[in-house]
Amino acid sequence: MMRQILAKIDTLAETDCSVGVAKFFRRAAFVFVLLMAAAAPHSIAATQTAWLLGMLCWICSLVIGGQDELKFGLPGRLLAAYFIWSAVSSALSYEPIVSLDKLRGASVFLIFPFVVNVIRNRKAVILAAGILIFSGLVGALYAPLQKIIGRGIEVHGLESGGLLASKGVSEGDTLLAANGVKTTRPEDVIARIEVDGSARIDVYRTDAPFTIEIRRDELPQSTEAANSRLGFEAYRRSSNFRVSGFYGHYTTFAEAVQLIASLCFGLLIAAVRGRAGRSIIALLCTATLTFILALLLTVTRGSQAAFVISAFSITALGGGRRILLIVVALAAIASAVGLFVLHNQRGVGFADFQDGSVKYRQMMWRDGSRLLIQSPRNLVYGVGMDSIKTHWEEWGLFDKGWQPMGHFHSTPLQIAVERGLPALLLWFAVLVVYARSLLRGIRRVRNAEWVTLGILLGCFGGLVGFVAGGFVHYNLGDTEVAMIFYFLMGISIRLSDIVLDESSSRGHSAEIHKNLTPQEI
Questions:
Q1: What pTM did the predictor assign?
Q2: 205 or 476: whose pLDDT is higher?
Q3: 213 — phi, psi (to 5°)?
């Protein structure tokens, strides 16, 4: 059994040219790539561990056994140049120590050369993509389950003169945790206050979470029920929240779902176009709808709009006119449902300029643009990653401290402000070269190879959605999202290269056959 598994791994990882310890390391590097695909939709720690161990195994295999050709290509060289400029910007930052430390997060671009070199054939690409989709489905299925289970203590019948009301809690707010420990009953809150002497309680209010502190001496000393001592009559587990899957934040989850959903949708469009079996189409359709449901439950407008743009780009490239019309109709229905959920959950419209989160973004965009053009130095080198957290006051950010400290809610603006316009131009060059590589592969792939076409279409749509979402989210700054993006970039560019090599080989063979005489044929 073990020999059969190892033989299968050797075939997928193409380790036949290696022997001994080098073969072991190449096997291990390939296994870690697959573990990355499985962990990426759920855990940043597990994904980074698999990546770093895989990188170590890959480097060991190169040192011990060598390799015929290392594949970096133009995308890899541009990514390296982007990282080097980020390092220069960090060294010249207003806070060099802080910015240089942030380079650890920027170094996840190394996932691309690792994946593109370890994944070496079409079957390996398909396996990695399949694992990513299946694992992503687990998180997508968990999203509605989160809503059903609920969380925290949603307070009702709040007493106007009670303890919670005096701390700013309102009717319908949810108590999530006390001193970092999740709460499901009022007794949990009381116990934490009495044991620790005081408790910082995380309170969720739609789009405005906050924290209150209650000391032991503020608790009414009585024999009444715990909820009465806190100042409310009734409670229940709350379903009034935006799902986050296995991540800690709904925006991170939404951006990750957008990338994986695009991959799944690309396979669905290619399966329909390639006349795959009904069971396969039904399975892909169900998986895509599951991802869409999870995306709707995040109530994250930017990511939802990004997926709609992604779906249209995939359909325009890979589907016919009839499929495009069907997608438009389904998108209209999904948009109507999304607007209903948005209004019901957050009480705002899609483009509601009175919404607090929209106003905050507009403020950050204005402040970021002002800071960027404040001096030639900022235009060229930027202010340095995370330096705003130290110099925000002198730069007049965050409404002079009245607004929460955060980022600029736009990937292009964040890159330009923190690392300068050269870094932004290099990043745009990476995206353009990546898109061109995918388009070349899509044009060359044969219609019968619907899985290959589907992966390329899905990754192209994911790229378009990632760029679109990046105008309102700093999605490149979410390490979880960035790792999935670079992983997809690695497998799709490898697949595109395979398609182009096969196309060139077929063209070369046809040219040789054309020049042969009848006797030679």
A1: 0.90
A2: 476
A3: -125, 130
